[in-house]
Each structure stands twice: as structure tokens, then as C-alpha cells.
Amino acid sequence: MKMRENLPTTPQPPIGLHHYTLLVNGEEKAVSSYRDTSLLLVLRNELQLNGPKYGCGLGECGACTVLIDGIAARACVIPAFGVRRRAITTLEGLGQRDSLHPVQQAFIEAQAAQCGYCLNGMIMTTAALLRDNPRPDEQQICAALSGNLCRCGTHKEIICAVKRAITLCQQQAGSQP
Predict the structure, then answer these.
(1) Residue 151 burial by CB count (10 A; 0-12/13-18/19+): exposed, middle or buried?
(2) Which of 67, 75, 80, 140 could form a disulfide with 42 if both were Cys (CB 3.0 to 4.6 A apart)?
(3) Which helix (H) or strand (E) is 128 found in, with range?
């Protein structure tokens, strides 16, 4: 039996694997994925950012919400390769440990969690809402959060947290409610 010569000595990457950079939480991160790999999988598996959660995988529950150029987006249905030139913010990049974002602080103060699985989506959606509308009324808050599912029934506390976040954001900006 004749042996083939010049066999590769190192494993070859699978066909279609792309190497690129994402701008995540203000830092450039080198990643590798297939063109259709979801942003959620890249964030969680390659970058170990576990704020965004895998919920439905269909973009319907909101657990995977991130901000892309400041707009709330469902990371489970967006290919990471497609957002390589955009600013991506996860829950981890919204605030700092010693200086939480007002929305994060408000959710803590209002104790707006039971199991906590939906919180990533609720917080990120609220941050996007308050960026675009600093003084939403309750109807606007409910409409903005309507695509984020909470199975534990903490909706009342979540609405209270958003209202508290409005106050904290205004205080941080130097204006009173």
C-alpha cells in the first residue's frame, strides 16, 4: 500500500470559517465563526459574555437582547458576521461593577427579579427605550417591554424598576423628574 505524501500536519479549519473582529462593549474582539452563526452564540461561547441568555432561539422571548448601535436587538437571530462593523453592547458593558448603569441600579433597587432569566432582555430593552424616550409613560413602557417574556410574573416589579430608572437617569443627567 502506497502512503500519500505531504499530508497536512495541522488540522485545517472547516470550510467557511471566518475570522473577523467585533466591537463589543467598546473593545475590539477577534472571533471566528461561520457566516450564519448567531451573535448570541459568539458572545456566549467565544467571548464568555453570559448576560444575553438563550431563551427561544427565535427572537421572540427577548432573553438574548443586546444593543447594536444603541438599538435593542435579538442576538439569537442575528448572524455575528453581519454586525462586525457595528457597536455591540451586552449587559456586561452597560455599566461597571463599581458604577452600575441607572437601569441596572433601578432593577436592583426595585427587586425586579425572581428567577432572573428575563432580566437581561428587560434591562437592555429599558436602556434602549430611555435613550430614545427619557420620560416614557406607563403605556409606552409596557409597549416597549411587550416583546420580553417573563414567566415568573414579576411584571409589576419590572414596571416599577423602569419608573425608578427614569428618575435615576434624570438625576444622572442633572435634571429632576
Answers:
(1) exposed
(2) 80
(3) helix 119-132
Answer for the pair 93, 128: CB distance below 8 angstroms, yes or no: no
Nearest 5°: the CA angle 16, 60, 163 is 125
Distance CA 154, CA 160 (A): 10
CA distance 15 to 25: 29
Condensed to tens digits (0 to 9), the pLDDT of residues 72-131 reads 999 999 999 999 999 999 999 999 889 999 999 999 999 998 888 899 999 999 999 999
Task: Return the sign of the alpha-carbon dihedral for residues 136, 172, 71, 117.
Answer: negative
| Residue of 86, 84, 77 whose CA lies nearest to 147 | 77
Q: Whats the size of the chain, residue-wise? A: 177
Please, which residues bridge with residue 79 across strands?
38
Residues in contact with 4: Cβ distance below 8 Å, sequence separation at least 6, in sequence order: none
Q: Smallest Cα–Cα separation from 35: which of 62, 49, 17?
A: 17
